[in-house]
Write a structure and sequence with these properties.
18 strands; 29% strand; 5-stranded mixed sheet; Outer membrane lipoprotein wza fold like; disordered N terminus; single chain; alpha+beta
Length: 298
């Protein structure tokens, strides 16, 4: 009976261990200098202590001395302390729990196309939506593909797509940690010039970050009655040279030709009628985009 009870007790301990420790797979926020951590050793209350992390990333623990846990997750720090207890021959099978009681305030840097870029102080992980709100939200010409660079992990970059759909944006929102950098690039711009209702540049800020020829013409208020049907698509090739592609708009509208997906920097030129037409070279069309108004339609 005694052996059975001991076996049951050991089984209970084995199931309890994951609950006592932390799940390293779900932790992303690292321990840093100045953080206040709570160290608990299972069934050894006299070794429980709260200690501040030094600038060198170490904590001074009873019976052990200095242990370096800076730059680690709480779960990894617990394992480091367990190894230290074993190596110092203080315990044979310690079970350690590390919890951060107070993160030192660190800036999160929000850069790029937001209304108020700059550093913002946060003390705990926040959703990317809340962090963007601190900066006043996205600027009108912001791309919805956002990059988050982890603090102390420059090689770890997380891509987040801010969908126009509110439910999707919230369900897919990632966490931003103190010290991280959030980068919001400018949205790709395409231009439509010539005889349309509203010529200018248009940011590709649709929910799928795609835009076609027909969509662009519709955004620009459609072609005017005085326009010609033979459009010109000016696109920069891999060699950096501008290339001109003829486009039959009527054929696309009637479904006789497939719609054309547009790329960043594309310029669509809608010629005027013979009565109003003036000679426009590709270079003069490209030059005219420098002073074009930029529109954002979601």
């Amino acid at each position: 009976m005694r052996k059975l009870l001991l076996a049951l007790f050991a089984l209970c301990i084995s199931f309890a261990t994951p609950c006592f420790g932390q799940n390293a797979e779900t932790e992303t926020l690292l321990i840093g200098p100045g953080d206040l951590v709570s160290v608990n050793v299972f069934d050894t209350p006299e070794m429980t202590q709260d200690v501040r992390v030094s600038d060198a990333g170490t904590v001074r623990l009873q019976l052990i001395g200095d242990v370096k846990i800076g730059g680690q997750t709480p779960a990894a720090a617990a394992k480091t302390i367990e190894d230290a207890l074993i190596s110092h021959q203080i315990m044979k099978a310690p079970q350690v729990n590390v919890r951060v009681k107070d993160y030192v305030t660190q800036d999160v840097s929000i850069l790029g196309e937001v209304k108020n870029p700059g550093p913002y102080q946060i003390t705990t992980p926040q959703t990317v939506l809340r962090v963007l709100a601190l900066a006043g939200g996205l600027a009108e010409d912001a791309d919805r593909k956002i990059t988050i660079q982890r603090h102390n992990q420059p090689d770890q970059k997380i891509e987040y797509y801010l969908a126009n759909n509110a439910d999707q944006a919230m369900q897919t929102a990632v966490m931003v940690n103190p010290g991280d950098t959030v980068i919001v690039p400018r949205a790709p711009i395409v231009y439509i010039m010539g005889d349309v209702g509203r010529p200018g540049g248009y940011a590709i800020a649709t929910n799928d970050s795609k835009l076609t020829m027909l969509q662009l013409v519709a955004m620009a208020g459609s072609t005017n009655k005085t326009s010609k049907n033979n459009l010109r698509l000016i696109r920069k090739g891999p060699d950096g040279q501008q290339k001109e592609i003829p486009v039959q708009l009527a054929a696309i509208q009637k479904g006789k030709q497939p719609d054309i997906p547009l790329q960043q920097g594309d310029i669509v030129y809608v010629p005027f009628s013979w009565m109003k037409n003036t000679a426009m070279t590709s270079s003069s069309i490209v030059s005219s985009t420098a002073s074009a108004a930029i529109f954002v339609l979601h």
